[in-house]
Amino acid sequence: MSSLPSVPLLIHTIPVLDYIPDNRYVRYATLVSIASFCYCFVLFVYRLYFHPLAKFPGPFWARTTQFWLVKTLISGQNAQIVKAAHDKYGPIIRLTPNDLSFATTSSWRDIYGKDTGRKQFTKTEWYQMVNSGFGEHGIGSEPDIDKHAKKRKLLAPIFSKQAVRDFEKLLVATFDKFTRIVQLEGSKPEGIDMSEWIHKLMYDLMADLAFGEPSGVMDTGGDSYWVNLVNNNINVTAFVEAANRFVKVDFMLKYMVPKSMLSARDEHVARSKAATAKRIEKEAVLKGRSDMISYFLKDSDYKGTSIDEIACHFSQVILGGGGTTATVLTGTVNHLIRQPDLTRRLLQEIVPMFKTSDEILAPALSECTFLTACIKEGLRLMLPTPGGMPRMSHGETVDGHYIPAGTIVYSHGYTLSRSEENFKDANGFHPDRWIDPDNTDNKAASQPFALGPRQCIGQALAWDQMRVILAKMFYLFEMELVNPPENWEDGAETYFTWKTNDLPVAVKRRASAKNDPIWTRVQNKN
To answer: Which residues have CB under 8 Å from 517's CB, separation 6+?
Structure first.
């Protein structure tokens, strides 16, 4: 019976080893190197020519390894680099041997929609990081299709039409505080960083809505826990996403993630649970207050839902609704200030409608076509999730191509929204494209709230907030950029979401609103 040759015999039968020094360990190392090279060579050939996704183009290192995408994820220019790859290689590209990015309008429906007879694409393991530490999945991270549907139904009362209208009272109260800070800081020579303070406004508002506990930053003018949480960890999260390409999330969280991030996670989980429990306990004495917990307790079938799960839901609502809305508002403000003719048109629409800023409320603003067009254009350019939303295929077609089970796919919204094939002067801010009936832009390419059963559950709330905040800001203030760069977006970082640049703005009261009652209110609070 024959047997496999021993390693020493192999060493003496490979001719190239005759040229290697007669040292056992050197020859072992050489043999391992040759074997590794041969393995990599065969693997590269397979991935380039015989892999099920071999027909799709992309950068060489993307088609053969994970390293191209890993480098892209941690670069801080994720969306921009992937778009450049699409521009070079086409509408469907490989980001890794097993990842496909689509820059086609039909991919939105195919990947994220729900069509009878089609297998749904599911959320990938990466989303485990979103709920890490809570022990239960929230609305934004639940991978199971049926469980997600139940959780969406559980939270539906919070985002009902009536609830969203009632939440406007907290929005108006928080905006008053924002107005006081903008007036004080914006009058300084260096102006106010509008990006920073719009983010603080939104996180403070969302924390008040979700937990009944504003951070207090709008009263003190200090740091925001929520803003710091995101800014201090967004790039680390990208590192974790990149490392997830090689090791499992649980192992990574235990052995690879910096202790500072784990400490921040544990603090965040404990803080969210405590705030949730405290708000639920206070419901009996807060009758009449309209916030998310009040609607959840009143109209949801929440019996049996753990504090862990409730806290995870509302934590994700804050993180998902605060930063994304703030980014869109900041980008829209930047573009409107840079184009005075657009500001004039906005004022011509809203000023005649309202005697004072107190009358500026969402129901009336929904009829403002130019305001709505400005926000749609802001959503297109500052897409809330520029890095894409990964989904796992279970063996289904996308854009006419069969995608094998286990393949990770994305609709790359940043590329779709910035493509000249979809939008004329795609990087320009042109609200009229959403109004002009003769405009031929492919507007279906812009899907800032996604599609299907997992589309943003809070989009009605986000629309109300953006309309009210934007209208009130321009109604009350004249704004001018301080030492503006040619392009504010240059250098802005893109991960799963945006990390925007500073936006210094000089502010003064608008003459048409000099006698507005809001000035008396905020003056009394100074």
So the answer is: 356, 357, 358
Q: Return the exposure string of 188-205: e unless at least 16 CB atoms fall within 10 Å of the residue's CB, then b.
A: eeebbbbbbbbbbbbbbb
Distances (CA, A) of 107 to 111, 154, 380, 406: 6, 29, 17, 17
Residues that constitute the known binding site for heme: 456
Q: Are strands 396-398 and 122-123 parallel, antiparallel or unpaired?
A: unpaired
Q: Model confidence at 212, in pLDDT bands (50, 70, 90)?
A: confident
158's tokens: 């919070």
Q: Rounded to an integer, what distance in angstroms lies between the CA atom of residue 496 and that of residue 507?
A: 32
Q: Selecting from 2.30.130.30, 3.40.50.10540, 1.25.40.10, 1.10.630.10, what CATH number does the domain 60-524 have? A: 1.10.630.10
What pLDDT is stored for residue 1 in this prediction? 47
Dump strand ranges (E) for 458-511. 477-481, 493-494, 498-499, 504-509
| CA distance linking residue 76 with residue 79, whole number of Å | 9
| Residue appearing with tokens 């000099």 | 514
Structure tokens at 468: 């009210």
What are the tens digits of pLDDT across the range 315-343?
999 988 999 999 999 999 999 999 999 99
Q: Strands, DSSP E only, in 332-476?
A: 391-392, 396-398, 401-403, 408-411
325 within 8 A of 462, measured Cβ to Cβ: yes
**CA angle 126-496-323, nearest 5°?**
120
- Please report, in range form, the residues annotated as the binding site: 456
Q: CB of 113 within 8 A of CB of 452?
A: yes
- State how far the alpha carbon of 239 is from the alpha carbons of 129, 236, 257, 386, 449, in Å: 12, 5, 9, 17, 25
DSSP lists the bridge partners of residue 506 as: 480
Q: Residue 71 corresponds to which tokens in the numbers above?
A: 């480098």
Q: What percent of the chain has pLDDT over 90?
A: 69
pTM over 0.85: yes
